[in-house]
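Page 42, continued from yesterday. The earlier attempt failed because a stray header line got pasted into the input along with the sequence. Redoing it now with the clean sequence only.
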Amino acid sequence: MALWLADKYPEVKGLVLINAALRVPGYDYLKDAAASTYVDEVSPDIKRQDVEEITYEKVPVAAIHQLQALMSRTPEKLARINTPVFCFKSTEDHVVPPVSTDLILRDIGSDQKGVVTLTNSYHVASLDYEKERIAEETRQFIERNAKSFNYKRTG
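This time it went through. Structure tokens are written below.
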């Protein structure tokens, strides 16, 4: 979704992506499923055991179809996106293949791109062991690019 917004609104000043998806292999079997059905939600992909992500019990197949359509059309938009992009990718992600981040970084039009590899977090990295690192690296990315954002720090 963030990539689509950056394509549609070139004034977007920067992107931070965490385990961004161009494909969710676990949903491939639903490509031809009836849109009026629901599937059980799987457990969140979090390495840390003492964390809970709030999820629904069921997922509408129609929503999965919309996600699949969005992901299938995202690669064609990448070359037009010129905003700075900073990515996080977990080496062990049971939802999104880490190669999705590699493909985004390869094909995005931006000259300013960076990636941090997370070795101790799964897909929901923002709730996992490296959440503080994600917050700090994101803060640094924003500060590095703040001048081009034309924002003035207050307080």
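Notes: The first strand starts at residue 15 and ends at 18.
Reminder to self: strip header lines before submitting.
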